[in-house]
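Summary for the steering committee. The consortium agreed at its last meeting that each partner would contribute one worked example illustrating the joint modelling workflow. Our contribution is presented below. We chose a case with several input lines so that the handling of multiple components could be demonstrated. No manual editing was applied between input and output; the record is shown as generated.
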Amino acid sequence: MADGPVAEVLLRQLAAADGGLDSAELAAKLGVEHQAVVGAVKSLQALGEIIEAELRSTKRWELTAEGEEIAREGSHEARVFRSIPPEGLAQSELMRLPSGKVGFSKAMSNKWIRVDKSAADGPRVFRVVDSVEDEVQRRLQLVQGGQAEKLGEKERSELRKRKLLTEVTLKTYWVSKGSAFSTSISKQETELSPEMISSGSWRDRPFKPYNFLAHGVLPDSGHLHPLLKVRSELRQIFLEMGFTEMPTDNFIESSFWNFDALFQPQQHPARDQHDTFFLRDPAEALQLPMDYVHRVKRTHSQGGYGSQGYKYNWKLEEARKNLLRTHTTSASARALYRLAQKKPFTPAKYFSIDRVFRNETLDATHLAEFHQIEGVVADHGLTLGHLMGVLREFFTKLGITQLRFKPAYNPYTEPSMEVFSYHQGLRKWVEVGNSGIFRPEMLLPMGLPENVSVIAWGLSLERPTMINTASTTSGSWWATR
Amino acid sequence: MPTVSVKRDLLFRALGRTYTDEEFDELCFEFGLELDEITSEKEIISKEQGNEKAEGASDVVLYKIDVPANRYDLLCLEGLVRGLQVFKERIKAPVYKRVTPNGEIQKLIITEETARIRPYAVAAVLRNIKFTKDRYDSFIELQEKLHQNICRKRALVAIGTHDLDTLSGPFTYTAKRPSDIKFKPLNKTKEYTACELMNIYKTDNQLKHYLHIIENKPLFPVIYDSNGVVLSMPPIINGNHSKITVNTRNVFIECTGTDFTKAKIVLDVIVTMFSEYCENPFTVEAAEVVFPNGKSYTFPELAYRKEIVRADLINKKVGIRETPENIAKLLTRMHLKSEVIGDGNQIEIEIPPTRADVIHACDIVEDAAIAYGYNNIQMALPKTYTIANQFPLNKLTELLRYDMAAAGFTEALTFALCSQEDIADKLGLDISATKAVHISNPKTAEFQVARTTLLPGLLKTIAANRKMPLPLKLFEISDIVVKDSSRGKNKSPFSPAESILL
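What follows is the complete predicted structure of the assembly.
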């Protein structure tokens, strides 16, 4: 562009000009678009000190579309006046004319016309004066001719109120000679060719400087989803720690495995319609291991295995209700049940990362679907200290090292702990997970030996991803953008 | 987590010392509570309704404390203070006693009509109690908290408290036709029939949520005294006649409901918390409840249960090495009075009526750990040796994902729930042919069914990105849900990889 025709003309004009020139004036003079001049100015600026350009903004008055029409055809009120013959015109007819409605009231207030309401065939409009001066049209034509300053402030704002005039801001450049001004700009080279090297001519040629601020061309590539990248990372962490992946390929679960097997009582609020998605079709789970179901029923309603139980009437129909799982702990329950059927007992470490569902109203911080991460260790003689140790290793692999533990409550773990980490950015302790030792009322009916403890912990996938990507909400990853 | 709002200065006065906000926050953390918010009534109204409405409201500092959902004994200031004082070993846990009155015992007779609507009732008396405005407010607040939590919004249990001096027993708990029940309800000036009340309360923001519990039933529960005065129509509203005021000296408490165990627990909680203010502190006057079958029970139960746990079990489960005496001390701090017995290794723990949440030794283990301090426990790694295995489906998914991205496709993550049209009409199919799983209580049409194909999600993604330059190459590898009638169970049988190239 700097070597384009506009730029060349600009430089020559500048050479001849006294002091400097205005870009808008130049554009008008050359008969080119103002943008073309601006482009030339910008590219000349990039070359160094050839020109100096100062950004100015000027305000200008311009006619609106309606204003232009009036400048051409005359104001509505003048047109109304002109369309009234000496014998007058029926008002109804007048109103039907294109400028009728608007012009009529104006013409009346200007006292150019009058209405005779008592006329025989309806109100009739007559001229009051013989001729009129179309002031409005005249003023608009002045503005059109570039002489807006001839109008008074009051007149201008009146026309603006009628939406016939607008004030337009124009950004122009005042261009003056720079310290290295010259009318000739040599063409800059953009390529280094073998000929230039062999002939040595590269020494005398000006080269276009690299623009390291340009955007560049994006390489053509595919992308993995950020949330799922974190999922892969977590899978990796679990596998490194020796945890085996549990099957979780079932979004649908029965209330039995989702709640009852976990010793969550049937009247628990989480089993409400408000929090859980229940299924209409198919509504009930037909296949449940009935002897196990009976042990669960007894534990809830009467106790046993060292427990007082909840002492309420446990109902099979409630347990059969199908739902969209509210946590992947149901998969852990299934896995532990399967483990309990294998004799003799062998210790196990399990994990899962999969989708769970909550019947919530969606907003910036709540989703109906999200991912839960769960880890489980089943062995003899595990303690709370072991749980904390495992958590420390796990979170260290995530880059979270400062941990604090707080007593908490879950229906299916006791003791329970919330895990907190110190967030440097927010400068406060934030919850990063929930954990605990599964209750005997959950494990013993499955058939696990009494001295086997099962420690477990869980967190959502969205939280660590948010911290990683410094996002404030996780909704956007689910959005279709 | 239930939240209890207490006036900070009242709390500190009861605790006998002041704390800075940080110190109190720390104390809560140790104990298993969470200091959720520090605010004032003025701030609350300001936030909810704007600054003008907040004018003149109190700016007394309020602490909003989150309490574990199973600790009914911490749902009021009295309980919190007691719990914290025992925790800090400043007081000994009080011993709650049920006493038989010198004169006649209050009786509540249940008739068989209640059997089909709300069969259980328990009752007790708080004798010579002294209320102040704060104590009175706390008393009402506790009932509300219990209603919201363990009572499952009054469906399981409803609490009624009455000025005993305005009534005369024996009391009858029965069920009658709504048109036959007529009384002046709390804070109203005239009498209404139950039918009228059900209508009136339809627009009451508080009470309208409970109407469904008895609405449209042929008989409504109602409690009368011997003069035919209505004490209450549970679970909706009490009568105005027996309304409690700050000057009430003797309180008759009745809890009715559909869960006997919970009704007993609720009664125990209320009387243990507030018997502190009786002339004979921590004593509760017994009441007798006669069931339709003639069986008579005395309430409140205020049962103390004993459990014996081996000290080394607690040590082993927590991962600490404390002497039995020390463990007994730790438990006593958690309101579980304990002492070493037998061979020196056994600990006898007395579980008070305020700790209905303790139902197994593991609950005792947790309390020992809390008193010890979770963050004092030494971390250790389990010696569990395992070889890890990937779930084959997920392994395959990972392999495919990387190659798809390498081939230039962008991974999408879309919702598993969608509308019926998304998987049927919009794909030119009939919904019945899709073998889709239907949700029964979707909040919006977007959650009607579980997706049977990944196509709608991907197409929606493309539609939302149509301003982007082409080509758009998307893929998703994830589960779909298809009904499998042969097993009567639903499964996501496979993860189709669907990709769209535009």
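Chain A has three domains: 3-59+170-177, 65-165, 227-476. The radius of gyration of chain A is 41 Å.
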